[in-house]
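lol forgot to send this yesterday, sorry. struct tokens for the thing we talked abt
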């Protein structure tokens, strides 16, 4: 069973579920067969959890707020980690509390298992931005990247991506994109116009392979974490389409999704 196509949900509209250990979770996308999933987890202040032993699925995470000790290392704001399937992350402890965005890989995914890949713990704030110019079709976004992890055998890429403000081309139409691999995104800051509406902080999407998406423009700029099902994003381009500035919220979500997920969310007033 494949993971469902979601484009997009503002995670502010997803309810927290309290877990037996006192944590709270927002599950965003799940494959119930393989266990591949994406969720947000909130650890309360003073949490002191035992070593869970070897992981049954690889775990990849980004700290959204707070600070937490994972695998013996204190991970703070926007720190990143990867724990292969079959390895232990040790006890998890947090004095102040912490919120993490978590990606779990499938139970039978060989490319995320110990022996085929390595554990990682990074502070992206210490990494330089790769500002190599993008292809002409998306050059207006003026993108820069920090690659956090490349999976073995061309299996995945996890990276931070920023686009500068005023990322709108002069022309009124531009091509949309198609990839032969999945693509997943969580918006950390900023905004981006899409044909499904205006993506704001906290927005999440998951696109299976061969999904037409875009065009994308950003008046305010953006900062996001992305995952792709290949080491380098491979793109086919469609015929030009109208720019989506002003598009109303029109999400693509699977049947049975809670109605609350489809609420339009504009966030608190800026001033």
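and heres what i got for the seq, position by position
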């Amino acid at each position: 069973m494949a993971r469902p196509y979601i484009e997009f949900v503002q995670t502010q509209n997803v309810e927290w579920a309290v877990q037996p250990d006192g944590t709270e979770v927002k599950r965003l996308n799940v494959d119930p067969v393989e266990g591949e999933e994406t969720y947000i987890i909130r650890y309360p202040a003073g949490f002191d959890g035992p070593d869970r032993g070897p992981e049954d699925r690889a775990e990849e995470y980004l700290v959204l707020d707070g600070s937490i000790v994972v695998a013996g290392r204190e991970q703070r704001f926007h720190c990143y980690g990867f724990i292969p399937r079959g390895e232990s992350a040790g006890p998890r402890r947090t004095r102040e509390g912490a919120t993490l965005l978590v990606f779990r890989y499938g139970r039978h995914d060989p490319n995320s298992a110990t022996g085929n890949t390595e554990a990682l713990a990074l502070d992206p704030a210490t990494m330089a931005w790769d500002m190599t110019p993008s292809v002409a079709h998306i050059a207006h976004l003026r993108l820069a990247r920090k690659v956090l992890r490349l999976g073995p055998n061309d299996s995945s890429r996890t990276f931070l991506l920023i686009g500068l403000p005023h990322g709108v081309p002069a022309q009124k139409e531009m091509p949309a994109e198609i990839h032969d691999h999945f693509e997943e995104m969580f918006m950390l800051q900023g905004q981006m116009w899409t044909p499904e509406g205006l993506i704001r902080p906290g927005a999440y999407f998951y696109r299976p392979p061969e999904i037409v998406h875009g065009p994308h423009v950003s008046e305010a700029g953006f900062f996001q974490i992305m995952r792709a099902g290949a080491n380098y994003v491979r793109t086919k381009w469609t015929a030009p389409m109208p720019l989506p500035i002003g598009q109303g919220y029109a999400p693509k979500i699977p049947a049975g999704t809670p109605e609350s997920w489809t609420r339009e969310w504009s966030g608190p007033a800026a001033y």
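The radius of gyration is 18 Å. anyway ping me if u want another try
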